Amino acid sequence: MERTVAIFYCQESDVTEKGYGRFIAKATDLLVDDHCIVEGFAMEKMGFRMRPGKIEVLYQGQPFDVGRFAMVYFKNRAAQIEIVRVLSVLLKTMYPHIARVDASEQQVVSSKFTETAYLALAEIPVPLTIFLPRGQAEFVNAATEGQFSLPCIVKDTRGNKGRDNHLVSTWADARHLVETDSGQEFVLQQYIPAEGDYRFVVLGGEIAVVIHRLGSNDSHLNNTSQGATGTLITDWQTRFSAACLADVQKAVTLLQRDTAGVDVIIDRATGQHYILEVNSSPQLLSGAAVPEKAAALQKYLRERLKLTS
Question: Strand pairing of 71-74 and 3-9?
């Protein structure tokens, strides 16, 4: 029975088709006696549709079954390390029988893309999200096929404090963003109708402070750095479901954060909670509720110091 070996290569590193084509041809010759077919795929053309407990890989905007391979070989992985990391963890989690060569299975968070992927694979509630490669608008087309409803969010995978975060009402606008900002990579995320969101400040694995954040009427952003108001929530232990509080702590533990700001949004229609982000720089001494955050940080740091005495 023939088996298929996939070479996932970086097209930008192998600047000519001859470069990676020659490698694939030689790999085919090496494995001809093992009844293997060798196929090559450019990682720049890959996208990912992410939801709790599931990640679907897309290639040139179409579903791509990575489970059919006997082996995946990552070539020139440094140039597309984020895609390599997500694919490696996906294969290890969902398809452990597939042999992996030059994989990168350590869960390193370097963008909204990798963070959302790790949370989704851990079955933590995240909004339906698609990772969009640079300048490839066909991934927006894939998202429209019965998966998303408008409006939706398009945001830079490395944006922070609400920067490069867009609420779009047409697919044409979404495609325009992806096509014109060729130097950026985006995630497209289902918009969740809600009354603001909540920042959970977590220190040492324990929820210390919770702040309700509400943006202005003319913005979908709830970041206090973008003009939203922040209100301290003192009854958070009873206001939120046990599942929500557990998911906040699970997310922080999964991403191995000592201090974190977990942004949670709750769908006003269904009551379902979603983790939007796990921030590694959660404005502990700025923004809203500074006295409460400062006191919590002081307590946490003193407890950590006791462990060294």
Answer: parallel
